[in-house]
Every structure is written in C-alpha cells, then in structure tokens.
Here is the input.
Amino acid sequence: MTGLDTGNTGFMLLASSLVMLMTPGLAFFYGGLVGRKNVLAIMMQSFVSMGWTTILWVAFGFSLSFSGGKGAIIGNLDMAFLRGITLSTPSPNETIPMIVFVAYQMMFAVITPALITGAFTNRVTFRAYMLFLTGWLVLVYFPFVHMIWGGGWLAQLGVLDFAGGIVVHVIAGMAALASVLFVGRRRTPEAGPHSIPLVALGTGLLWFGWYGFNAGSEFRVDSVTAIAFLNTDVAASFAAIVWLALDWRLAKRPKFLGLLTGAVAGLATIIILLGVFATKAWNPAGADGLLAGNPSFFFVEVGAVVFASVWSIGFTYGMLWLIDKVTPVRVTAETEEGGLDQGLHGEIAYEGV
Here is the structure.
C-alpha cells in the first residue's frame, strides 16, 4: 500500500484498543451509580453494544457511514460486509490501512449508543433496548457519521468535528434527553450510588481510553496528536478540581463522587466550543473560529449542533414510541421495585440482595 506508515498504523491500533476500553469503563461508571439490584442490567447494556454494534458495523454500518453518497445524508452498501476491502486498501489517511480505520471507527460506534443508557437506568426492558440500539444506530448515528466524517452533506457545508463533539456527544446527549422525556420518572427512588469504588474504576478506564478517543482522531502521530492528548488531560483535570471545589464549598465536604463526575464531564465537553476556539495555529488542517476572526465558521458549527439536536431528539422519541407499540419499553412496576437484574436477567450481582 502506497504511503503505509507502520508507526501510524501501530498507534492507531493502540488508539482503537483504548477506545474499546472505554465501553467497559462506562459500564463500571454507570454500574456504580445505580442501586445494588440494577448493576448487571445497566452494565449489560454497555457490554451488549460491544457485540451487537460490531455485527451491524461490519454488516452495513461502516458502508452506510463511509461509502458513496458524497454530499448526501447517508452512504450506500458498496462496502457491506467490508466487501472490496483488502490488506492494501488505503484509508482516508493513506498512511494507515482501511482495516485499521474500520476498527477505530467501530469503537466509536460501540460506545456512542451506550452513553445514552444512563438516562433510562432501571426503567427499560432489554428487548426494547435491543430494538432501540439497532434503530438508533441506523437512523441517527450512521447518518451523522456520514454527513460529517464520511464526506456527506454537513461536511460539504464546512462542518468540522475533530473527535465526536457533534457525532458522539451532541446526538447521544439529545437522545438521552428524548429518552428521559419518553420513559419518565422512576417509580422506585434510588438510594444513591451503591459503589463509589466502581464509579472510580469506570472513571479511570474512561479517562485512560479518552486519550485514544481524542488523540487517535488525528489518525497519525504528529504535533496535533500531542496537543489533543494534552488537552484531554487538562480538560479532565480542571473540571475534576472545579467540581470538587464546588462540592466542598456548597456541601461543606470534599466529595469523591464529585471529583469523578467532574472529570468525566470535562472529558465529554472538551470539543463542544470548536466554533469559538478553533484556530489553524494549532491545527493547520482545521479552521479558524470566532476568536480567530472567523464568525462564519462559528455559525456553521452552531447550525450543525442545532440540526443534530433536533434530528436526534425527534428520531429517538419517535423510535421509542414505535418500539412501545411492538413491545413495552418500560418495565413493570413489580420489576422496577424488585430490580432489573433478577426481574429481566435472572441474575444478581450481590448475594442477599
């Protein structure tokens, strides 16, 4: 393959592994935050995405995201089941093979719908979740990957997204909002996080994996990779300490959970203000934003965020409404009170629960 760089290829395999690690990290993070009767149910929602999303990605997800349809909303099926991809097929970054690009993007696809699950903990049936996972990837995630990263409509308008600010965090966050609105409040109040150590383990894995999530999005090793790596740690560290300080002042105690929550919040919001702070001085392949004297790019980014938010909320809510016509989305009051681990899966995380 022309231009193959073994260093870049090795780095991207490592970055893919780091992003993969984020999904188990998310499972531990959410698992620690719920009660003892619902640990396995929420963790399973993350782990099942590692299997089912991978199958959908290989079957047609990658093709819909990255083949054909230049300037369109969705791609085509030219590369379904990775048809035509060989050892020598180049990726959009010609220094790494396409098979590595497939793997890296697949890890993004795996974690994105799993992010939404924290919004409807303890309230959704597993059958409905599997239908939701499938439909949401097809109707929301794959189109936005294509529109922004696959040369589709938004990319043609000049929208940029370095590491998922829109493609991952905006659409997942808006889907979470739509899910809360549809599913509603808990019938059985939670007593609070059952295991802060589990939350800490999840935070550590997420923080570690996020280096691959952000730095790997450069798809090569250069100075931009290094600044993305550094900014990842700076964002998490500042947010963690700010949250800790606020907890200490308002609750009169330095809360460990606040520190952990702040770190994850900082990691998730590091690229939200791209339209404001972007500058070619730090990424020559990017764009100048509002503070660099280019308000047009700022308005393009804002428009993309608004469009993505409306799309994600609309399709998510509508999809849950349709799923509820096929199979109940919400668990019964009895199952919610007794816990989803035993009620849905016939398993328990702790003896005596």
Residues 251 and 291 are 36 Å apart (CA to CA).
